[in-house]
Amino acid sequence: MALTKGNLRRIANGGVAASGTSPGVYSLVTTDDWATVNAAGYFNTAADVLEKGDQIIATLDVDATPQLRMLVVTDVSAGVVSIAQVVNTA
To answer: pLDDT by residue (tens digit) across 18-52?
Structure first.
């Protein structure tokens, strides 16, 4: 299953900060579960708007047992979007 692009909303604009480029921040609310969202190709329909370094606050499985995941876009190349879950290692 692929992302329904309308479920992904930009909530903060990236731009140029003193330390360099700031990432865009997106909100995703979906009935899809983590296995679906984490599958290869899920975010490809948003390759035209997502950029490497963008952050996604994802609220998943809202029709069953909701969960929150923080994601980062690790690459966008030739229409393929790669993501990783942000894990607190502290």
So the answer is: 556 778 899 999 999 999 999 999 999 999 999 99
Q: Which residues fall within 8 angstroms of residue 61, CB to CB, at 6 or more apart?
A: 30, 31, 32, 33, 34, 67
User: Which stretches does DSSP call E strand in the chain?
Assistant: 8-12, 15-17, 20-22, 25-29, 55-60, 67-77, 80-85
The reported pTM is 0.88
* CA 2 remoteness from chain centre: 13
Q: How far, in Å, CA of 48 to CA of 27, rounded?
A: 16
The tokens describing 70, both together, are: 């923080």
Task: List the structure tokens of 60.
Answer: 């998943």
